[in-house]
Each structure stands twice: as C-alpha cells, then as structure tokens.
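User: Some background: our group keeps a shared notebook of sequences we're curious about, and every so often someone picks one and asks for a predicted structure to add to the entry. Today it's my turn. The entry only has the sequence so far, pasted here. Could you supply the structure so I can complete it?
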Amino acid sequence: MSTSAPTQVPAGTWNVDSAHSSVEFRVRHMGIATVKGSFNEFAGSLTVAADGTVAANGTVEVASIFTNMSQRDDHLKSPDFFDAPQFPQIGFTSTGVQSTGEDTFTVTGDLTIHGVTRSVTFEAAFEGQEVGAQGEDRVGLSVAGQINRRDFGLNWTAALGSGNAVVADNVRILLELSAVKA
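Assistant: Of course. Here's the predicted structure to add to the notebook entry:
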C-alpha cells in the first residue's frame, strides 16, 4: 500500500537488474574509519499502478556479503551478526511511498534482518529512464538510509581502550538500482 507515486516512474512492474545494480552498506570501524560492504545476490521489484500507488519489495542473500576481507565476511555471517544459516535473507516490503519533490520520494516499509522486522524510511531518487541495448525499458533509482543494527538483534560488540566500539551501531544503506519493465 502506498500513495503519491513519483510521476517519473511509468506504470508497470519494474524488476531490479542485479547485474547493473548494487546493495551496499557503510559502518564506522574503531571510530576512525568507515568499512564498506555489499551483498552480491539480491532481487527486487517496484510496481506502479495506473492510479499512482506504488509497491516495492526486495530480498538480499546474507551469505553473499562481501567486505573485501574473507575473515570479516565469515564473522558477519556467523551467529555474532547475521547468523546466515538461520536467517539466510534480509527482506523489505514497502508500506508507503511519498513524493518529496520532482525526482525524490521517501519509501517506508518493513525491513526484516536476523528475524526481526522494523519499520524504516529511506530517501529515494528517480535517476532517469532509458531504452536498453535489447530494446527493454529501464529506470534508475537511488535509495539511501540509516538503521541501527541493534534494533535488529545484531548486538555483538567489543570496546577498545579508547572507548570506541570496534563496530558502530549505525549502518548506512545505499542502493543503486537499474530496473527493467516486466
């Protein structure tokens, strides 16, 4: 359920093209640097009805996490964090979409991580529409937001002598999506 569709996204169902999209995150490490990571396996869709209502959903395969360090990736997949064997997917289902400008909107929805579902709101932008090399209609979207990992039961922590945490609580989420009309 949602309202006020971004008028630039034409009616129809748009499926995320994972080969031309990314699902990334950023989190402070030791209070002094930012570690970036991504998920390499994900799917999603955006459906814009003729009346302007919008529905978005997506899933991420936790085991596909990549931070450029296999030891850290293994730790993130473990019960200390995501517990990938027990909770193999992260899921999102929109509950509302509101236009905030000509090319911008907010997407509110239920985000499920580690078996915990919370309502979150992300800022999104329509990046354009184009016809691809195979004649397919495409749209581009950018989505960004921040969550507190502890809200989802990701509570592992370790403190340094300075008082800084090894891993910060706040996690920035960034999606760059290219979607193809079904």
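Suggested note for the entry: The chain has a mean pLDDT of 92. Helices lie at 70-77.
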